[in-house]
Amino acid sequence: MVKKIFTLLILFIPLLILFPGFSNFIFPQNSDFSDLTISHLPNLIYLKKCISTWGEIPLWSNMILSGYPFAADPLSGIWYPFTWLLAFLPQPFGYNAVILLHLLIGGTGVFLLLREEGKGYWGAIIGAVAFQLMPKILSHYAAGHISLVFAVSFTPWVLLAEKKRRSSCGRLWKIAPGILLGWIALADIRWIPYVGIAWMAIFIDEMISLWRKRVVSKEKRGLLNLPLFLQESAGMMLQFFTAVGISAPALLPLIQYSSMTARASMEIADRLAFSLSPVRLINLIFPDIGGYAEWIVYPGIFCFLSLIAVVADRKSRHANRIWIVLLFISFFIALGSHNPFMSLLTRIPGFDYLRVPPRALFLGGLSFSILAGAYAEKITTSAEKQRTPIFLLLIITVFSMG
Does the pTM of the predicted model rise above 0.85? Predict the structure, then answer.
């Protein structure tokens, strides 16, 4: 218990950089507003007013033109539990505090994910801090994309749950991926296609690992073992129906509502709006300070160097192959209209309602964080052998992330 508290304290300390702005709303550079103040906050005020005035949760809102179904709007947040916590907190403190809590939840998820992969304590800590201080997350926080940050913060937990679904004896872990996917859908359903890609990537990687173990053990049936295939298929279907069941209050009204909105008539050009220009890949090395949140690609110099180090080392490259692949996929999607294959992806159900392909870069940021943890594990192991103070190394690493 003491070590768990110590770990949470370590993960909390880097987030103290957010405290100076807790008494104010955070805005992008050279802007006096954000999506938080023009959308999320008015929705919260309207929700509180309806409850205090009429004693009921509003299903309809007249705040835009002749009105719209408030309960079907993903940005209303009425189906996400943390929205109700926000309703009881003074603003802007409440939003800032809940964002900090989600960053801590996300960092803890990365820490546990790295530990599940066999990484050491300090390597996992550094990977977690890299996720919490991800420039893209902080830039979207400033842009007021609150629900998106909420959803992204639970992504590491989905991947952790998928890994533990087979290794853990606990019954809750057997349906944990579905529970977490449903939770994410309640936070921001627009993130579901992207977290679904990461989830499937982990699932495929786990299946490949299982196949290799059978080959090594000279199991003739290998991956084509029918009972195993049926078991895994049943497990995936269980997660799907669990997620749908949890998210149904938000999902069902949205399905009906979305068919009547402009999103239903979007062309490919509309879906690929704000695609990442290949020229902006230079910002992997040189940060675009104060740039447009959707086009932020800078992962932190330590994370970028970690990618190079991991790819250059054969053993590390093999051990972290899934994160390298996921990183590649995120940029493949983010390039949008500059990618000749992207028009096919936008026709897939779920993706056909999405805009802004660079949001896939959150998956890249998560991958960078995992690779940073893997490389930090190698550094700290070497440092321990040379008796280099771990805390000194940790401080240098954290400062090199920015």
Answer: yes
